[in-house]
Design a protein that fits this description.
Two copies of one chain form a homodimer.
Chain A (H helix, E strand, L loop, with lengths): L7 E6 L18 H4 L7 E5 L4 E3 L7 E15 L5 E7 L4 E2 L12 E14 H10 L1 H25 L4 H14 L6 E2 L3 H8 L3 H14 L2 E5 L2 E4 L1 H10 L1
Antiparallel strand pairs in A: 1-2, 2-7, 3-7, 4-5, 4-6, 4-7, 8-10, 9-10
Helix pairs in contact in A: 2-3, 4-7, 5-6
Chain A binds a DNA duplex (30 and 30 nucleotides) through helix 6.
Amino acid sequence: MHRNGIDAARLGTARCSSCAIRDLVLFGDLRDQDFDLIHIPIDELRFQPGAVLYSAGEEGGSLYTIRSGLVKLVQFLPDGTQRIVRLLRRGAVAGLEVLVGKPYEHTAVVLQEAETCRLPRAVVERLSKETPRLHARLMERWYQSLHQADEWLTELSTGSARRRLARLFLKLAADGPDEPVLLSGREDLGAMLGVGMETASRTVAEFKRAGFVVEQAPNVFTCDLPALEAVALDG
Amino acid sequence: MHRNGIDAARLGTARCSSCAIRDLVLFGDLRDQDFDLIHIPIDELRFQPGAVLYSAGEEGGSLYTIRSGLVKLVQFLPDGTQRIVRLLRRGAVAGLEVLVGKPYEHTAVVLQEAETCRLPRAVVERLSKETPRLHARLMERWYQSLHQADEWLTELSTGSARRRLARLFLKLAADGPDEPVLLSGREDLGAMLGVGMETASRTVAEFKRAGFVVEQAPNVFTCDLPALEAVALDG
DNA sequence: CGTAGCATTGATCCCTGTCAAAGATAGTGG
DNA sequence: CCACTATCTTTGACAGGGATCAATGCTACG
């Protein structure tokens, strides 16, 4: 696991007004005049799998908008075990807690090569004072995080391992039907579902044998959605 | 379970500027002139145990500041089972999601007689436009909810039932050391820990026999904190 | 006094954690 | 080119924990 920044490639300075995913990102409906307020540059950074955006406990300097790729938020328990509490994808924001003056709550680790915009705390705070439009965006991000946290609890931490896994596949398949679902190893899978990695492996194997999923390549799955629905509901 | 409002006793119209827990509540650092902006009254409502503040799926009209008592947020799964995703106590806010135009995500049920301030959505939105101080407060509330959600996942939904129960007692005892911990039945206990109610009952019984807790009256416990710490860590 | 609701306890089965070993796969260096 | 290692996945065996079904206490209340 690499340290923050060591393998972050700086792609350039963000030009929000011409952002390709403008309607998704935090600064999406700011105007040019809003950006005149800030003079700190916003860096676009690319991270490779395994890279760490930030670690739990660090004093937070920045938030990160995820432009592409996949990032996991990991929380470590006193006894050493770890749990993945959230997955961040295109449009999500990592590190919101710095806006209330807290250190980072989680460790953010890249699972699939990710492009991000690093937004210094001062920039967000400054813009936030001036433009009410940003407030709405910020609240939406808080809401999304909270919503996902609740879903994670009720769907991925409740019921048998079979049901949890089925619900995870369904969730990951949801936003790209017919797109293959990408995972990142059985260990992480277990950490998402709150089960041991052997159980995760066994359950995936069972799904493969039953034809609920097909592993086209390592950690690349195509899913039989209706079959998985049935498992998620009836066990 | 009673329907929203049926047994809500209206205590009067809130006067935030003289609020007894002003430093805790959402509107705590607003000034009189801020309130001049609104003309909709803020009601103070008292709810009895079992009363429902709102139900999942309803179009949200208001948020609720909890002034005293205890409220659970419940989420129902497609298969009918239910899970308690959060507990709200003095100073917490229920129903933040209405601020981003969403219907209520959970059903909010009173566990211990609760006094609340009902804040109509329009009031919060109006004030939010005018005063940046409220923004900071709102973000703190989002943060608190998110933080509690993450804690809930890692502490109360991970590990054996014994550890989960120990951690729950510790969490509830945390803000009132030497104060007895109040619960609300084994069914709810199970729904918080993600275990069956029989398991919850058995585990509580075991803790009582071991002297980790003493049930002074039904659902009223005093705790041996150090002993519970040990259980939470070492199993 | 009987009933309704909740808590406790028992019995049983299955799931999952755990320890352990045996396949895969990719990368390294001889 | 192939052995060799490191890493990850799969599978096995087994014990323990929790779910589930069911019966029995317990308390409050009509």
